[in-house]
Amino acid sequence: MDRKALSDIARKKRVFAYADKIGNIAKTCRYFGISRETYYDWRKRYAAKGVNSKPCPQNPKLRVPKKVEEKILYLRTNYHFGPARIVWSLERYFGMKVSTTGVYRVLLRNGLNKLPGGARKRSVRDFKRYEKQVPGHRVQVDVKFLTFYRQGRKIKRFQYTAIDDATRARALKVYERHTQANAQDFIDYIRKTFPFRIHTIQTDNGHEFQAKFHWHCEDLGIRHVYIKPASPHLNGKVERSHRTDKQEFWQLVDYVDDVDIKAKLKEWETYYNCHRPHSSLNGKAPFEVLREKLQKQPENV
């Protein structure tokens, strides 16, 4: 028996096992892309003489076009996007409409329905993450440590990140040193980048956010608060955004020099704020949500 026949037999067994598990033939057929007539024919043959090696027909009407499938696989393998974000990206950038179920079938058929080990899913915690409604009411700030290698030399840099709690708008800047002076400079950069007044800055208790930084914020009319020690989940939005940076930006960038890396980070900041569909914003970009909120609450600008 050749490999194709063995693969067909294994697939039929999966179909039967899935149908027995959920107890619904119609859903099983939709899930595997076969007709109910085909399913009952397989069952009849199985009852008579076991699973045979007759090829498994598929319903081509349930398959997405080849061009769409190629883009789905590209977004999954390069950026580790989930089905929902793939759907938003296809519609936003390519004008292609496909359902999340259609995307999942493509991933399942190509063995990409599970992310690689290095791209773990978000763990379930026993706390609830709250969200402010007014832009600038609370901005989370943190630092991401970066390591590059060039000509055998290890290079360390520091990405300072700010994310608005209400809109997920972000400000990003890379520094050579991890100091309070750079943290103060970053606050000035945030004020120029965000088109709204900042009421409160929230940070952890790192050395870069101590007295000089604190009073710099206060002198600018910005309240500065610390999260509780050993509670990084309280800065969860900025922490999660750093994982996005790693998966969708830094893994694709090679270090040339600081000028190049700063220019590329600025492009990523613009893309993230203006174009990238955000899962927590129902596929909208942060500045799209910001525009909606400012239209509803212009007095808070």
Overview of the molecule:
This protein is of the alpha/beta class and 301 residues long. It folds into 3 domains: 3-61, no CATH class; 63-109; 139-300, Nucleotidyltransferase, domain 5, CATH 3.30.420.10. The chain has 11 helices and 5 strands; from the N terminus they run ααααααβββαβαβααα. The chain has a 5-stranded mixed β-sheet with strand order 3-2-1-4-5, sandwiched between helices.
Compact overview of the structure:
With 301 residues, the protein is of the alpha/beta class. 47% of the residues lie in helices and 13% in strands.
SSE blueprint:
Layout: H1 3-22, H2 25-32, H3 36-49, H4 66-79, H5 83-94, H6 100-109, E1 139-150, E2 153-164, E3 170-175, H7 180-193, E4 200-203, H8 211-219, E5 223-226, H9 236-248, H10 258-274, H11 286-296
Parallel strand pairs: 1-4, 4-5
Antiparallel strand pairs: 1-2, 2-3
Features:
301 residues; alpha/beta; Nucleotidyltransferase, domain 5; 3 domains; 13% strand
What is the β-strand count? 5
Give the class from helix and strand content and strand pairing: alpha/beta
Order of helices and strands: HHHHHHEEEHEHEHHH
Going by CATH, the architecture of the largest domain would be 2-Layer Sandwich
Oligomeric nature of the chains: single chain
Write down the CATH class of the largest domain. Alpha Beta
Terminal CA distance: 71 Å
Q: Percent of residues in beta strands?
A: 5-15%
How many domains make up the 3D coordinates? 3
Q: Over all CA atoms, what is the radius of gyration?
A: 25 Å
Mean pLDDT, to the nearest integer, reads 85
Q: Any idea of the CATH topology of the largest domain?
A: Nucleotidyltransferase, domain 5
Morphology: elongated
Number of alpha- plus pi-helical segments: 11
> Strand order across the biggest sheet?
3-2-1-4-5
Q: Uncertain segments of ≥5 residues (pLDDT<50)? A: 121-129
CATH homologous superfamily of the largest domain? Answer: Ribonuclease H-like superfamily/Ribonuclease H
